[in-house]
Design brief:
Layout lengths: L1 E7 L1 E3 L5 E9 L4 E9 L6 E7 L4 E3 L7 E6 L4 E6 L8 E11 L2 E6 L3 E5 L2
Parallel strand pairs: 2-11
Antiparallel strand pairs: 1-3, 3-8, 4-5, 4-9, 5-6, 7-8, 9-10, 9-11
Length: about 120
Amino acid sequence: QVQLVESGGGLVQPGGSLGLSCTASGTTNAIYVMGWYRQAPGSERELVADISRGGDPKYAESVKGRFNISRDNNKNTVYLQMNSLKPEDTAVYYCNADYRVGIEDFTSWGQGTQVNVSS
């Protein structure tokens, strides 16, 4: 089992920056991908960015060039630095971890943290 605890989020003005972090506990050596998803009201949950254990990142087109995902395997923590924020970035952001136990793959989710971009 993997448990995820997020921190960060809050209210920021358009054009501002905000950082999120997520720390995993439990069977952390089984995690191969960590990432961030978001869900705005009335919308489906969507991938924002994820990063492999080896540090290979992937971004949604809507956040490329503005967001940066990083990972510290020693601390079992993934970070999301969000710059040049726009009102459409407003959503609940969820940390995600994919891990493998034996031959089975599992996914864990954090509790979610609210990000509001508004003037």
